[in-house]
Specification:
It is built from 9 helices and no strands. It starts with a helix and ends with a helix.
Length: 239
């Protein structure tokens, strides 16, 4: 009776060895799943010699005979399943590493683009504020500093704050001219019309005593402001 237990013990031993080998973290995933595939193939082909051994050298019931053969096949498929899992995990790790590398590369590209855009935006803000500085020289030096402080806060942080001093109306700078100067600078910065209206009304309240609603109706649109700016630049080049 004990002779037929030999192939059963061998199969159990192979199962234990395969399980322990699959758990070895020191061995590469690829090596583990290849070895397990080999074990699985051996176990499936071992059905033939096991069958011959059981029929020639043992006398066992058909149930025990089938149990050993089924167990051998089950161990073979189990090893194949574990090998498939190891291979899947290896591919998953490679795909994850590839995704991380692509994400990192994309992030670098985005950061480079944002840096370029920020530098471009800073250059634009600086140029428009310098242009506005030249246009508001009709005001006193103290008034210019107060206006530019408000303009910088609005340009850089979208903050509309009242100037530190009251800005007086100048005969050499009409209401229309003032609206053009401010709108031209801030339209080029991409500021919204309603925000520019609020800026004008808060920084230059003496210029617009009728209120913010009337100012919004009087304020020129983007097209008219750009036409005047282009006309001024053209005249400047011809001189």
């Amino acid at each position: 009776m004990g002779i037929y237990l030999i192939p059963l013990c061998v199969i159990v031993a192979i199962l234990v060895i395969a399980f322990l080998f699959a758990s070895l973290q020191q061995v590469k995933h690829k090596t583990r799943y290849i070895v397990l595939y080999v074990i699985a193939i051996i176990m499936l082909f071992a059905v033939i010699p096991i069958n011959e051994y059981l029929t020639k050298f043992t006398q066992i019931s058909s149930e025990e005979y089938l149990l050993i053969l089924i167990f051998d096949i089950a161990v073979g498929y189990f090893c194949m399943y574990i090998a498939g899992l190891l291979k899947f995990n290896l591919l998953k790790q490679k795909n994850q590493a590839l995704e991380n590398a692509l994400t990192e590369k994309q992030q670098k590209n985005v950061n480079a683009l944002l840096k370029h855009q920020n530098e471009k935006q800073k250059t634009l803000l600086k140029g428009e504020l310098e242009w506005l500085t030249e246009k508001i020289k009709v005001f006193t030096e103290e008034e210019q500093k107060a206006i530019l402080a408000c303009a910088c806060a609005f340009a850089e942080h979208d903050l509309i704050i009242a100037p530190s001093i009251s800005i007086q109306q100048k005969d050499t700078c009409s209401q229309q001219d003032l609206m053009y100067f401010v709108c031209s600078a801030f339209f080029n910065m991409g500021k919204k019309r309603n925000d520019i209206v609020s800026f004008l009304y808060k920084v230059f309240p003496i210029y617009f005593p009728a209120g913010e609603t009337v100012l919004a109706k009087k304020m020129p649109g983007v097209d008219k402001v750009r036409e005047r700016r282009i006309k001024e630049e053209t005249e400047k080049k011809t001189l």
